[in-house]
Structure formats: C-alpha cells, structure tokens
Amino acid sequence: MRHLPGRRESAIADRHDVEREVISSRRAFEGKVVNVRIDEVQLAAGQESVRRDVVEHPGAAAVIAINDQDEIAFIQQYRHPVRAELWEIPAGLLDVEGEDPKETARRELREEVDLIAGRIDKLMTLALSPGGSDEFVHVYLATDLTPAEKPFDRGEEEAEFELTWVPAKEAIRAIMSGNIANASTVAAVIAGFAKKEQLAAAQQPRPKAAEKPTMRLMVDYSGPALWLLGGDAPEVSDEKLAADLDNWNEHFQNSYDWETGWRTKADADQHFAAAQELLPRVQAHFPNYYVYHDVWETRYQADES
C-alpha cells in the first residue's frame, strides 16, 4: 500500500467560530439583490493584509420534494448570468423579514410548483461560493406531498414554471453525466435521496429479541459505549476498535452537557459522523448481535444551523 503524506481524520466539520481582523471595509456597490463589499483582512499575524471582494447575499432556501414513487419535483428556469435554462429544485431568497428558512422552503414549494409538504426535514446548509460570497442556501427535504387546493398566481419568469417529475435515479444519472449544473440542486438530489432511504429504513421493524440479541452503540458519562439489552455487553477483543469506542465516548463526555445539550453543532456533527463509522465495525465484530446506534438528542448551546 502506497503511503501518502498528510494527517488522517475520521470525522471532520467546518468551523464557524473563527474570524480574522478586518482592517477596513467599505461598500462598493448596492444592487437589487446583492451588494459588493471590499475588505482589507489580516489573515495571519506578521503578514500584510489582503483585499477581499465580498458579494453580500441575503441567502436562500431550497427544497427537494420526493413523492411516493421516488420521483423528484423539478422546474426549468432561465438563468441569465450563465445564459442557460437549468433544471432546478424549488428555491427562493430569504427576503421576508423574520421568516425561518424552513418556512421559506414551504412557501417556495407552494408558490413554484403548487405542492404542500406534510413533512419537511433539514438536509444541509451550503456555502455556494465561499471564496467570494457570504451566501448560504438552506436545503430541505419535503415528503408526504399533496397538491395545493388551487394554483398559485405566478408572474414574471415564474409564469413559465412547469412541474416535472423525474425518477430520483435518473436525476442522479443526469448529475453524474454532467447534465445538471445547479450546485444546490446537485447536492440536494444526492443527499435528499439518501435521506429518504434512511428515513424509510428507520421505519422498518427491528429484529425480534428472540432472533438476535440487541446491542446499542450509545454514550454515557459513566458507562461503556456498548449496551446489551437485558445483560452485559461482551468485551471488544479488537484493541483498535475498543480504543476508538473509548475515544468516541470521551468526546461525548467533553462536549455534551445534560442541561444545555451539545456545546456546538460541530461537536454534535463530529460525534454522529464517528458513530456512522463505528457502527459497521461493531456489527462486523459481533455478527451474532443486532447492533444499532442509539442517537442522542441534538440540542446545542449555541445554535449554528
């Protein structure tokens, strides 16, 4: 096996609690939707400041709607900056003061394709072009869909919107073939289909205790990372796996408070990502048990979502 340089990490998460000193800042342009700001930033101590041109954007919400036949709701929209008609999921600006992005997603689904979501789940938040813009897009998955009682009165460019249902696997194939270019749509289709399958799997009945003993991969301040329902979990003979389980449990102890929840969203994300890596290893180590991850509640002391 060829060894390549660089450090190894089993779980990574963006940091949103860091800043660099801004030496000066001025508004260079004000537009209908975006503004342009010019900052002089001190990136590192002892180095000269650098200029950064920043496009200020209000942000947006996008929603991938998947029906019971695993078809995705698409529209085609002309995008003048790239001179193309792009296949996209419903989306819109966060331009209503005080409106939660989740409600923006619901509203855009209703206004653009006349659909009502019985369930809507957060998928991700995307920084679309962090090298030059502060725009974030909040992406949601909409399921349990029903048609609106009457069509929304769409004007201007939205009057051309036509709801088109595309099988999810065909949409993924189009993405991999380079036939869909909208970044939030690409991310939403891949993540949304995976999330829908995950939700469906979670609703499947677990094996009966008589068929296989059930073992939980979970965390506690005082106990081990593995719990056997109705008895003591067997010892982990794999030293590397045992150490990784201890480290995972220790991370929880250092990052979670019983009264206030997770210290940061990054801590929670790191914990859950590590659990997903550990789960198949534990299952392979104990093939005669049914192992599942007992997910801890997701409350944050500082909400970064």
TrEMBL record:
Assigned GO CC terms: cytosol
Cofactor(s) for this UniProt protein: Mg(2+)
Residues in Nudix hydrolase domain copies: 55-188
Gene3D superfamilies: Nucleoside Triphosphate Pyrophosphohydrolase
The entry's keywords: Hydrolase
GO BP term, pick one: ribose phosphate metabolic process
PROSITE patterns found in the cross-reference section: NUDIX
Molecular function terms, GO-annotated: hydrolase activity
Pfam families: NUDIX (PF00293)
InterPro entries according to UniProt: NUDIX_hydrolase-like_dom_sf, NUDIX_hydrolase_dom
Family annotation (PANTHER family): NUDIX HYDROLASE DOMAIN-CONTAINING PROTEIN (PTHR11839:SF18), UDP/ADP-SUGAR PYROPHOSPHATASE (PTHR11839)
Name the UniProt record assigns to this protein: Nudix hydrolase domain-containing protein
